[in-house]
Design a protein that fits this description.
single chain; alpha+beta; 5-stranded antiparallel β-sheet; 35 helices; about 40% helix; disordered C terminus
């Protein structure tokens, strides 16, 4: 494409016009020549980057703006587009002159002259730093899902197109009263009745079309019990999955109630003025109308069209004179006008005026300290001589203000008190005698601070007064504070047109007490009386704020072992009793200044102050493990539990983030559980590195499942007598996009910690079922595939129905699947429903075999207890069996035991002919291992089967087990 570094006069004129427009836009705009050298940048660009035009003129943006963290491929695409004179749209991380990074959405557009020659580029950048931060928080949320789950705010994930619920945290479920399964059958329309409003529908369409990056709504959510509560909803798309949106919901019921109370108080004041039987009017210091009531308009009906806010008093009079409004002015209009203006300017006046309809009104006016004018127009047609009525009418206004249920005050433009009621005096319970017209607002606030509940120094009083005065400069503001007698007050202030201030205050003591009770309840575990997770967070914030630099605090994260067994075997009442017992043990073991909290179903946190001696803390942890492991009596039963503890130490001087140390204690707890439970471990830095690696790997597994990167590798199993293939074992492999093919040992530990084993097992079941028809097509009349099942999956109460549904969907018979389980699964006290599920699976037609036999702790008992069809001897009992006499005796004894119980025996890990010979002699029925075939991808497997068939004939494809 032809380029030109020179611009025509017409083009320069056009760019000058564009620049004058772009100078005032909030987007960051720059104009470059054809070689991307900067010629001009707008004010927003200069302000955000910190560069002047002279500093950047002649440079390319890539020389000084690109920040670290951009993908090289992205930068290459931008440079390539610039070289060929094409535009570019995308997201880029750039930096300011001071080095501060921020994100923008680039729109680079080429500029050509009339002949089509490229003369430069115009770049429009829109800052998206906040949006990227939101995306980062969503990424972090996937790593710290447990913290989001416990958030008291509602966090909901929706299908972007149908608004169907995909997920919801505990806060949403508790507020709405639905379980997660119930919500997943619902859409937002079921809980947000007003969302089908046409305006909201259009805003939602704009959001779905991408015209809105975020969407904020207000409305009401409907709970399961039919009650409603006010909400403020913030919606945004999931950055890496546009099919989903995340909704952050805040319960604003309390705020709405406060706003309603404020509006009601204001309305009562307006009603009080409107219900006066006399005309009421207020002018500011510039003789301009501030407000008047309807009665005033009725009295001066001829002048009503000009009775608008801001109208000058003299102009109103002249308008009325022209239309004969004032009967006494007829024939002497100018003289009457001069007299009326003079009386109006007097500090106070009381005159009688006759109107054109024959009525007489008494005008009572007073000058306000700010130079304004407040007045009443009293119809005294029937009682012209009665001054008492005028006085009563004036008093009526005062009475109306006094009758307000809220305190009322009015200050002028100089912040001096004009008017107030007795309820305002009640806001100064110790001494209100200082109040009086003309008193400065700052003096009133200072007296209020002195009479407050807190004892403050003179310097602290000055700071408190300064903070209030700073707020007072805004157009309207509100604040809450406590009076000296303990009452709580909420005050509202608004500026009026003449610069004065009107306000009112309400007593919110009762609402505040209710709120504090609710906050206490929200921070306390109702079962044990300990602090809950929210209460712990509040106390940690206090600890972090008040801790000394050299102070050392210990955090113990405690998890009860075998607690689920108590619930399952004895009942939930017994479980509650055990939790209360454990809470009492922890209370007795800690000191008065220590904190004990229950942060989960069977998890506790102990915060130990003065933890300078690590040995003392270790001793305390060891004692807690012992005491919490003692049997707990419940009726005529004993509940047996245990405890695992993770310990971390926090010193503010070394680590300002107290939450990080609490996380470290949790990491140490996980290590103690991995090492066998019933013990404690003190956090070491290498534990965090492993946890971070595991969390990162778990996120990659999650993404890998979404991208279908996991597939089964099949390893053939052979009958030892005939040499025929009798089945295949399905082994999971991960086609990692960066690290290549990964085996289970490289990622399953992270999947277990992130509760992703069920998803991986389900994926392998589906992929393995899909291979059965292909094996049948390859010549196997009755193909069998062995599939590993995790203990967590086998403990699922609905696993039998889930597996049956999967096999039916692929047209696979249960007899064609062999389910492999580990002995550790049968021994895990957390694996509820295992016994029942095993028997139901076998009754449904599935074969069951025990994997890695000989490495567990109760092998013989398991052989008798469960309806097994085959056992698999672990490779550790096979490797080198031909040269190890003791190994030969052990493996032989296992094979003889299995045969006596009517079980088949498969030896895995066979690698040599010598090992195969020994296994044949001791009575193994089946073998698998590298001697015969390696685990292979489906494509490689079917190629290997075809090659084996060509070499050995169709006989090799028989599959009789």
């Amino acid at each position: 494409m032809p380029r030109s570094s020179k611009r025509s006069d017409a083009e320069l004129a056009l760019l000058e016009k564009l620049g004058s427009v772009a100078e005032h836009t909030t987007n960051y705009v720059s104009i470059t020549d054809a070689d991307r050298r900067i010629e001009w940048v707008n004010a927003a660009f200069r302000k955000r980057t910190g560069y002047t035009l002279d500093e950047v003129r002649g440079k390319t943006p890539a020389e000084f703006m690109r920040a670290d963290g951009n993908e090289p491929e992205l930068l290459a695409r931008i440079d390539a587009a610039n070289r060929v004179g094409e535009g570019f749209k995308g997201e880029l991380r750039i930096r300011t002159k001071a080095g501060e990074p921020y994100w923008v959405e680039l729109d680079i557009r080429p500029v050509h002259d009339a002949s089509g020659t490229l003369t430069g580029f115009i770049t429009i950048s829109t800052e998206i730093t906040d949006r990227k931060a939101t995306e980062q928080r969503l990424l972090e949320a996937s790593m710290f899902g447990a913290m989001i789950e416990e958030s008291l705010n509602e966090i909901i994930v929706l299908d972007a197109e149908t608004l169907r619920f995909l997920d919801a945290n505990r806060g949403a479920r508790d507020n709405l009263g639905y379980s997660i399964d119930e919500l997943r059958q619902m859409t937002v329309f079921d809980i947000f009745p007003g969302i089908d409003d046409p305006v909201l529908l259009e805003r939602r369409r704009e959001f779905v079309r991408g015209e809105r990056k975020m969407l904020q709504l207000e409305g009401r959510h409907r709970r399961k019990d039919g009650t409603f509560y006010d909400v403020e909803v913030h919606i945004q798309r999931v950055a890496d999955d546009p099919s989903k949106i995340v909704s952050f919901v805040l319960d604003v019921s309390a705020r709405k109630r406060a706003e309603a109370e404020a509006k009601a108080a204001e309305q009562r004041l307006s009603v009080a003025i409107e219900t006066l039987p006399d005309g009421f009017v207020l002018f500011d210091a510039d003789e301009r109308l501030v407000l008047c009531n309807e009665r005033y308009r009725e009295l001066y009906s001829a002048s009503a069209p000009v009775l608008v806010e801001g109208a000058r008093f003299e102009d109103i009079l002249r308008y009325g004179l022209e239309r004969g409004q004032y009967a006494e002015a007829v024939g002497r209009e100018e003289a009457w006008l001069a007299e009326r203006l003079a009386s109006h300017k007097a500090p106070s006046s009381a005159i009688v005026q006759q109107l054109d309809d024959g009525r007489w009104v008494r005008i009572v006016e007073r000058r306000t300290p700010d130079g304004g004018r407040v007045g009443l127009r009293i119809d005294i047609t029937e009682q012209l001589e009665s001054r008492e009525r005028a006085e009563r009418a004036e008093q009526r206004l005062i009475d109306a203000i006094e009758a307000l249920p809220a305190a009322f005050w009015l200050y002028d433009a100089d912040d001096r008190l004009v008017m107030y009621n007795d309820r305002y005096r009640d806001f100064f319970p110790r001494d209100s005698s200082f109040l009086g017209p003309g008193l400065a607002y700052e003096d009133v606030i200072r007296n209020a601070v002195r009479q407050g509940r807190e004892e403050l120094t003179a310097e602290e009083q000055d700071l408190r007064v300064a903070a209030v005065m700073k707020d007072s400069h805004t157009a309207s503001y509100e604040r809450e504070y406590q009076l000296g007698d303990g009452r709580w007050v909420r005050s509202f202030n608004s500026r009026i047109s003449d610069g004065g201030r009107v306000g009112f205050g309400i007593d919110i003591t009762e609402a505040r007490v209710r709120q504090e009770k609710l906050q206490h309840a929200a921070a306390t575990d109702p079962l044990t009386g300990l602090a809950n997770r929210r209460g712990l967070a509040d106390r940690l914030a206090e600890i972090a704020a008040n801790a000394r630099e050299d102070e050392r605090i210990a955090f113990m994260h405690i998890d009860l072992d075998k607690f689920k067994t108590v619930n399952d075997a004895v009942g939930h009442d017994a479980g509650d009793h055990v939790l209360q017992h454990c809470a009492q043990v922890l209370r007795k073991a800690t000191r008065g200044e220590d904190l004990v909290a229950r942060v989960g179903g069977d998890e506790f946190v102990v915060v130990c102050s003065r933890a300078e001696d690590e040995a003392d803390v270790a001793g305390m942890a060891e004692r807690l493990v012992s005491r919490l492991s003692a049997p707990v009596p419940y009726g005529d039963k004993l509940c047996h539990i245990g405890a695992s503890i993770g310990v971390a130490f926090w010193t503010p001087a070394c680590e300002p983030d107290v939450q990080k140390r609490l996380t470290d204690a949790d990491i140490a707890l996980q290590r103690s559980k991995e090492e066998g439970r019933g013990r404690f471990r003190i956090f070491q830095d290498d534990m965090r590195n492993r946890a971070l690696m595991s969390a990162k790997l778990a996120q990659e597994i999650f993404e890998g499942l979404r991208r279908d990167e996991f597939e089964p590798y099949l390893q053939a199993q052979f009958d030892i007598a005939s040499g025929l293939i009798v089945g295949f074992e399905s082994l999971i492999r991960w086609n990692h996009p960066k690290r290549g093919l990964l085996t289970p040992g490289e990622f399953l530990f992270a999947a277990e910690e992130a509760n992703l084993m069920d998803a991986l097992d389900q994926r392998m079941l589906e992929r393995s079922c899909a291979l059965v028809p292909e094996l049948r097509a390859a010549g196997f009349t009755d193909p069998k595939i062995s599939i590993n099942m995790s203990g967590l999956r086998l403990g699922d109460a609905r696993i039998v129905e889930r597996i049956m549904a999967t096999t039916r969907s692929f047209g696979v018979e249960p007899e064609q699947l062999v389910l492999e389980i580990l002995e550790s699964t049968l021994l895990d006290d957390r694996a509820a429903n295992v016994d029942d599920n095993i028997r139901r699976l076998v009754a449904s037609g599935f074969s069951l075999e025990l994997d890695d036999f000989g490495t567990g702790h109760a092998a013989i008992a398991n052989l008798r207890k469960y309806p097994l069809g085959r056992i698999k001897i672990d490779r550790s009992l096979v490797n080198g069996i031909d040269t190890d006499f003791e190994l030969m005796m052990i493996t032989g004894a296992i094979a003889n035991l299995a045969r006596s119980l009517g079980l088949k025996v498969l030896a895995e890990g066979v690698e040599t002919d010598a090992e195969l010979g020994v296994l044949r002699q001791i009575g193994c029925t089946c073998v698998q291992g590298y001697l015969f075939s390696r685990p292979m991808s489906p494509a490689d497997l079917f190629a290997w089967i075809g090659d084996r068939g060509r070499r050995a004939g169709a006989r090799m494809f028989a599959a009789n087990s």
